[in-house]
Amino acid sequence: MDCWKEAIGRSWIYPTLIICANGFFSTMRPSEAFLTPYLTGPDKNLTIEEVTSQIFPVWTYSYLALLFPVFLITDYVRYKPVLLLQGISFIITWLLLLFAHGVVAMQVVEFFYGMVTATEVAYYAYIYSVVSTDHYQRVTSYCRSITLVAATVAAVLGQLLVSLADVSYFHLHAITLASVSLAFVCSFFLPMPQKSMFFHRKDASETLPGPDKVAATVSSDRPPSCQEDKGSVSADRGPTPEQQADDAKPQHHALSVLVQLSKDLRDCYSSRKLLYWSLWWALATAGFNQVLNYIQVLWDFRAPSHSSAVYNGAVEAIATFLGSATSMAVGYVKVNWDLSGELALGIFSAMDAGSLFLMHFTDNIWACYAGYLVFKACYMLLITIATFQIAVNLSMERYALMFGFNNFVALVIQTILTVVVVDSKGLGLDISTQFLIYGSYFTFIAGIFLIRSMYTIISIKCRNTSVAGESIGQ
Length: 474
Description:
This protein has 474 residues and is mainly alpha-helical.
């Protein structure tokens, strides 16, 4: 038995299989594409205004409140406990969706779903803590692919069950509850990591990169022999009691890590290239998440689910496929993104804006579906480029840090949009007008990067002209 446990601990295959199983079952939620028809239908009997202005905004607020502390706690407790917390939050969310009623109960649902999304960081971070760097690319592709497959399967299954088998939305949620419960069970079988990116590093060679490396952050994870050497050195310096040093070590360790994180953030954003890509990431992700959160409400407004056929699942399946295809295509396109990246951000952001304007001005549900497909495909294309451009010159630790901070900024922007545009305490605009605002928002993003790209192109041409003139003069 000990040999079996040791073999599991050393193999990258076992934890990869379990985390992929967890990812599949937690993403395989066939009811998600039909949430708004379920809430506004006879099961919950809520109005569109209650769903839009009072219930859905709670998810944004809870996500914002939980994201930063969960990001730090996830690393400190080494991922697995947070995956278990995510499983519990999933189960509570769908139990409440099935059996609770009323606006307040659904607001509690949104709070726990905010916990679910805040803890998603543990899914990818976990696997990097239990496999060697040689397997990072392979396990990343497995983990990402399995969630895309699960999302597609869930959307297709949900659509088939609703359209062909006449399965109720209630029973779709019951199937989702069973799936997320299996994900929770899978998380119990994950090996407990012995290291993490920031708080539990294994050796000095893995300290956070940067001009001011903090070697003290690794002291608590060294083997006993190293601890003894450290103790002998400190004894030479003075008669500090060993117990007092051990008590002070965790606080000093955590503080030094937080200081190093702040220095790394400052260093990362001192690069103009990373700053511009991160700016687009935060602005576009805020708008993208806002659209995703309310797209079903718009569809239900254009074609009420109580009197029209609902094809939300089929549209989500096609959108996921197109998003995957465009993301994959980026890897085969040979483009100098340093030169053309800002122009691409501007053009495709303008296409996003156009698709949102289409969804606002048309009354045709099929045009709305088409606009959504274009919108999601363009965003997935650009976010893939942005991810590569940010990650290519950064270590895993700094990329994780920028990823978390960019998403936090995006969530702050999304919260502002929600408070001003959606919340009943703000403007409380109707859903059609909201999409006019979102279209204008992406127009603003497109304008920033089109102007920036033209400035870059003009600067390069002027520089080339100047160099050519000097060559002729010589």
